[in-house]
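[Meeting: bench + compute handoff]

Bench side (C.D.) handed over the final construct sequence. Compute side (W.E.) agreed to return the predicted structure before the next meeting so the bench team could plan truncations. Sequence as handed over:
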Amino acid sequence: MKLFLPSARATNWLLIIGFCSLGYALYMRYLAVENSTVGLACQAGLNTWLCYSRRIAIALFTNSVFGVAALIVAALNLIRPSLFLFALALAAASMGVVLYNAQFSALAVGLLLLSLARRAPATE
């Protein structure tokens, strides 16, 4: 019985994806969403990429999109493990943990850990 374990190369890509999404989520939270200067400027009508990204991020985490998406993709990955689904769930969960969707995202991380104990899909 061979378990679903990413290779060394795939693990490096998963680390890059995880750290990049975590870094972008930290940037959005602390330098765009919670920064009062940026918030006041954006509410005053400033049209920059940062204000646009801030509006999108606020709309997404208000509706728990990061957490729900991470949970759904992690559940799919638990049913049928694949690197693509694992990477998607990892990115969404790391964004959700930082951007106020910690409950669903933490559950998704737990499902991702459980998927590492699953049998690898049969390759023909």
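W.E. noted at the follow-up: The chain has six helices and no strands. C.D. will use this when planning the next construct.
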